[in-house]
Amino acid sequence: MTESNHTSIRIGKHEVGPDHEPYIIAEMSGNHDGSLDKALDIVRMAAAQGAHAIKLQTYKPETITIESDAPDFRLSQGHELWGGRTLWDLYQEAHTPWEWHEPIFALAKELGITAFSSPFDPTAIDLLESLDVPAYKIASSEIVDLPLIRLAASKGKPIIISTGMASVLEIAAAVEAARSTGNEQIVVLACTANYPADPSESNLRGIPVMRDAFGTLIGYSDHTMGIGAAITAVALGACVVEKHVTLSRADGGVDSAFSSEPDELRMLVEQTKVGWQCLGRPRIGARRQEQEGLRFRRSLYVVEDVRTGDVVTAQNVRSIRPANGLAPDEFPHVEGRAFKADTPKGTALSWDLI
């Protein structure tokens, strides 16, 4: 097991870690549909629904691929969302123009929601540094780009690494690349890089394994539909949840088919917090809120008026609520004994009465 130097990190105004409510990142991706106004509306929506952060993706088509129709640069025909499209065509549609970053970040700051991004090459990091981003996110496909990870980590800000498709060795190499810069503010995200992801392929039991193996904070980049997977991830130790968001799936958009709508994002924020609150501490015993309930456990009570010399029977002494009398299991030891004094119905049975 690798020990981390951090039990929590700070992103913007929020502490992130096991002792804090889950940090919810709303991923805009390409759901702005090429409209800055729509991008700004997504920021407003994410803030209104209680997300802690809004995240962009910072690239240009020419910084992430090249314009080519060759088979290497075309998605498989059977791809559920983007079958047959070239990478250039897809990224041309999905990218967030660099001149939009400043107004998006400015609005997020005004609304009190943290904005940061995934850089896909060094020029993207330069742009994001000029905007004083508080954190960096490494996308799943970029986990093998160790120079990019080192450069982002060298800025001394939290770095969130998504692990879709990655082997244990590839994740370890990425974490080591970040740590080699002296940066220990690392969050590793469990992830299934399919869109949408089948819940049965989530393998969330790997979350505590990853935490122990890499000694980092752990989160979950969720591409399933609904919120069940995210709540499960929190129960298993995820302190960050990232989810693609859209104003409306019906409006279409490059990622809309697997993105959460506003009411779903609100439910994600609320229910992952409930899930985290339910974790509590590793202890067994009465909770503070159960103290009143302890008064109403069962115990032995006199249930008929009795006189001096009457013997204890199953008719005049029974196990009932509340809990002030002898334990129910004591009945065989008191049955047949005589009462020392007249005793009214409703009296808790004690040894001094018999």
UniProtKB/TrEMBL annotation:
InterPro entries: AFP_Neu5c_C_sf (IPR036732), Aldolase_TIM (IPR013785), PseI-like (IPR051690), PseI/NeuA/B-like_N (IPR013132), Pseudaminic_synth_PseI (IPR020030), SAF (IPR013974), SAF_AFP_Neu5Ac (IPR006190), SAF_PseI/NeuA/NeuB (IPR057736). One of its GO terms (molecular function) is N-acylneuraminate-9-phosphate synthase activity. Coiled coil: none annotated. SMART domains: SAF. GO terms for biological process: carbohydrate biosynthetic process. Pfam families: NeuB (PF03102), SAF (PF08666). Residues 299-354 form the AFP-like domain. This is N-acetylneuraminate synthase. It comes from Calidifontibacter indicus.
